């Protein structure tokens, strides 16, 4: 790889000064969900139309308009993604029939962990979110062919200023936000931005309470006209009470559906909690050379602690007496430390009389995670589950851990990718990554070395506004899932192919795309149907399925057909099957529609609506007599309106689940079901300066 990089870099550079001016001066303009360029897929500074994968951008206006307060909220609105809430404090994300495991902060890959509640990271620290659907192993290394979520942090605004926002909502929700940019030097070379959010409140789920704090600060310093240094820090503290471990029974003991349980039903006790604290520091330096090349180096340090006092309630209650439920109390404590480093270079080169682009990078990450579990010395009786109010006393627990574990995951890799402009209308993108993946843990060590992940893409401009593309990459994903003997399952392996067409319209104000995709995988983890009790570390045993396939198509339209309207539309069809052709992962919807619009009635008034529709979900054979759990197709409607009282003061109202639809957010986790939130109202008052 290094020899290839040196040979290409030695080629004559063309129009270097012009390229440098474009890359060092250019600023991305974000409005709604459109963005002119994104590099999450390949590392190359490609326009969305030149990127041979499906890409969506969720911008700050969309986030603010629909009051999206967490990453989970954004995932619920994002095209082609499922954000399934499995407990009061835990979410799982899926796309194209696969779990989303690839998360990045400013392009630096990090390990996502649902136990640490990464899903509810507050959006107050982010400027936008880039979503690339499909495999992105070229930049992230190990990964699923689902999607990569790149969370772009806020940077200081050159013009300074900020805002304070107060929000009140249903279930006694109270939230306060602050965001301010300022200059720290007279010449404007050093700038800072601070942001924070504090939220308290109850929930639609009985006993559940929220007490969240998020703080963020970042400083940028222009060391020269071509060099910028960025350092930042964020801290989160989440102290929820009434936290659930697991969800609700989907059936009664006689096999009839338990869908008459109220949305507010909980399995928590008044002593359960799931506290998380996290501190993340980052630094980056970037330099633009006179020959048009850019070099970036980024370092990320993440630390987190978790303390869960939990109660898992399982079984099937009698429909009349409510008897038949058991419990598994647990105290689970864990610490996590992660370091990540990325160094990359990108720029133009000339060959065969044409200009091309090249990027190369090195990545390193290491995560150390340790955990202790404490078992209960006494049982927690449930009695009549239909009258459960969480008042059961907290049992005594072992003073010493009943089980402990530690694990170190190290990933090293290097990648090289190039965009070859073979013709005025034809671009070829080739790339490859070489990865080493190592796990050292209490249950054993294993290593996967010199794993090659290829990437290939073709883009052909049919017209000045429309391009066709095709891309292919292979998949390598070590997995955390363990079998009944607490041994890790073998890595997921497979391939991902995509073909599609993209277009820019109305002077590039509106983008449209259509894509066909196909994924083939082996060693896919599913819950072991023969074992329903948790392992000593609190997780559940899995088995591997061979020959899983997923295929489907996506249609997306985003942008501004006129100055008054922002439009966001997507339709996704995704179906999974096993090697023998039988359906697979039917607990995920095959079809989804995301439709949102923001309309400016006048300079002072803006209204918006969001419609999320999905087809049915089925979890087969999980009832006591082999019945299938089912969530019929449903539609959620969310509405908003804002009014500018003055140039600085704005009032906003959001009505979520306006039709008050009762629905399961998930029906597969532990083969239990978790209700989505009821209709709820939020009102906000925002002052800007």
TrEMBL record:
<dbReference type="GO" id="GO:0015344">
    <property type="term" value="F:siderophore uptake transmembrane transporter activity"/>
</dbReference>
<dbReference type="GO" id="GO:0038023">
    <property type="term" value="F:signaling receptor activity"/>
</dbReference>
<dbReference type="InterPro" id="IPR000531">
    <property type="entry name" value="Beta-barrel_TonB"/>
</dbReference>
<protein>
    <submittedName>
        <fullName>TonB-dependent receptor</fullName>
    </submittedName>
</protein>
<dbReference type="Pfam" id="PF00593">
    <property type="entry name" value="TonB_dep_Rec_b-barrel"/>
</dbReference>
<dbReference type="GO" id="GO:0009279">
    <property type="term" value="C:cell outer membrane"/>
</dbReference>
<comment type="similarity">
    <text>Belongs to the TonB-dependent receptor family.</text>
</comment>
<dbReference type="Pfam" id="PF07715">
    <property type="entry name" value="Plug"/>
</dbReference>
<dbReference type="InterPro" id="IPR012910">
    <property type="entry name" value="Plug_dom"/>
</dbReference>
<keyword id="KW-0812">Transmembrane</keyword>
<dbReference type="InterPro" id="IPR036942">
    <property type="entry name" value="Beta-barrel_TonB_sf"/>
</dbReference>
<keyword id="KW-0798">TonB box</keyword>
<keyword id="KW-0998">Cell outer membrane</keyword>
<feature type="domain" description="TonB-dependent receptor plug">
    <location>
        <begin position="48"/>
        <end position="146"/>
    </location>
</feature>
<dbReference type="InterPro" id="IPR010105">
    <property type="entry name" value="TonB_sidphr_rcpt"/>
</dbReference>
<keyword id="KW-0472">Membrane</keyword>
<keyword id="KW-0813">Transport</keyword>
<keyword id="KW-1134">Transmembrane beta strand</keyword>
<dbReference type="InterPro" id="IPR037066">
    <property type="entry name" value="Plug_dom_sf"/>
</dbReference>
<dbReference type="GO" id="GO:0015891">
    <property type="term" value="P:siderophore transport"/>
</dbReference>
<feature type="domain" description="TonB-dependent receptor-like beta-barrel">
    <location>
        <begin position="234"/>
        <end position="657"/>
    </location>
</feature>
<keyword id="KW-0675">Receptor</keyword>
<dbReference type="InterPro" id="IPR039426">
    <property type="entry name" value="TonB-dep_rcpt-like"/>
</dbReference>
């Amino acid at each position: 790889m290094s020899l290839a990089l040196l040979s290409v870099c030695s080629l004559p550079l063309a129009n270097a000064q012009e390229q440098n001016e474009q890359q060092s001066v250019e600023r991305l303009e974000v409005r709604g969900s459109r963005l002119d360029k994104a590099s999450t897929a390949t590392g190359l500074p490609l326009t969305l139309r030149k990127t041979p994968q499906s890409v969506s951008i969720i911008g700050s206006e969309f986030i603010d308009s629909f009051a999206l307060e967490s990453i989970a909220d954004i995932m619920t609105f994002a095209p082609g993604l499922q954000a399934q809430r499995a407990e009061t404090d835990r979410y799982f994300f899926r796309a194209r029939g696969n779990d989303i495991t690839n998360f990045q902060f400013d392009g630096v890959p990090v390990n996502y962990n649902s136990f640490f509640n990464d899903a509810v990271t507050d959006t107050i620290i982010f400027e936008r979110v880039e979503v690339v659907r499909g495999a992105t192993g070229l930049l992230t290394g190990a990964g699923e062919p689902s999607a990569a979520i790149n969370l772009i942090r806020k940077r200081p605004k050159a013009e300074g200023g900020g805002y304070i926002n107060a929000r009140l909502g249903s279930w006694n929700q109270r939230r306060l936000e602050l965001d301010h940019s300022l200059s720290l030097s007279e010449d404007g070379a050093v700038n800072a931005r601070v942001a924070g959010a504090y939220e308290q409140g109850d929930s639609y789920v009985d006993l559940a309470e929220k007490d969240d704090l998020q703080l963020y600060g970042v400083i940028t310093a222009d060391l020269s006209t071509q060099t910028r240094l960025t350092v930042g820090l964020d801290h989160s503290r989440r102290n929820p009470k009434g936290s659930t471990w697991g969800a609700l029974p989907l059936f009664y003991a006689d096999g009839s559906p338990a869908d008459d349980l109220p949305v507010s039903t909980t399995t928590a006790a008044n002593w359960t909690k799931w506290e998380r604290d996290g501190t993340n520091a980052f630094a980056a330096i970037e330099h633009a050379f006179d020959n048009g090349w850019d070099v970036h180096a980024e370092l990320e340090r993440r630390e987190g602690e978790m303390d869960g006092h939990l109660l898992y309630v399982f079984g099937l209650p009698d429909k009349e007496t409510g008897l038949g439920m058991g419990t598994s109390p647990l105290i689970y404590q864990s610490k996590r430390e992660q370091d990540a480093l990325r160094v990359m270079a990108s720029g133009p080169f000339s060959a065969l009389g044409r200009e091309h682009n090249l990027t190369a990078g090195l990545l390193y990450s290491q995560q150390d995670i340790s955990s202790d579990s404490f078992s209960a010395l006494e049982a927690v009786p449930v009695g009549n589950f239909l009258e459960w109010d969480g008042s059961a006393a907290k049992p005594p627990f072992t003073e010493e851990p009943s089980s402990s574990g530690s694990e170190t995951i190290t990933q090293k890799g290097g990648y090289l990718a190039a965009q070859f402009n073979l013709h005025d209308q034809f671009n070829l993108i080739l790339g490859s990554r070489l990865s080493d993946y190592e796990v050292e843990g209490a249950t054993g060590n294993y290593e996967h070395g010199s794993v090659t992940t290829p990437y290939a893409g073709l883009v052909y401009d049919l017209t000045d506004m429309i391009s066709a593309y095709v891309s292919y990459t292979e998949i390598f994903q070590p997995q955390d899932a363990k079998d009944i003997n607490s041994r890790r399952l073998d890595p997921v392996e497979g391939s991902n192919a995509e073909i599609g067409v993209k277009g820019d319209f109305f002077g590039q104000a509106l983008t449209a795309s259509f894509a066909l995709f196909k994924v083939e995988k082996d060693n896919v983890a599913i819950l072991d149907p023969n074992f329903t009790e948790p392992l000593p570390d609190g997780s559940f045993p899995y088995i591997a399925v061979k020959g899983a396939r997923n295929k489907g198509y996506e249609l997306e339209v985003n942008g501004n057909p006129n100055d008054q309207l922002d439009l966001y539309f997507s339709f996704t069809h995704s179906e999974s099957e096993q090697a023998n052709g039988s359906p697979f992962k039917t607990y995920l919807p095959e079809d989804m529609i995301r439709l949102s619009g923001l309309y400016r009635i006048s300079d002072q008034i803006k209204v918006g609506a969001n419609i999320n529709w999905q087809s049915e979900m089925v979890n087969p054979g999980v009832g006591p007599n082999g019945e299938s759990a089912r969530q019929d197709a449903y539609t959620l409607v969310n509405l908003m309106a804002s009014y500018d009282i003055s140039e600085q003061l704005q009032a906003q109202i959001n009505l979520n689940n306006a039709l008050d639809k009762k629905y399961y957010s998930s029906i597969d986790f532990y083969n239990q079901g978790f209700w989505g939130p009821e209709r709820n109202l939020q009102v906000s008052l925002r002052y800007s300066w």
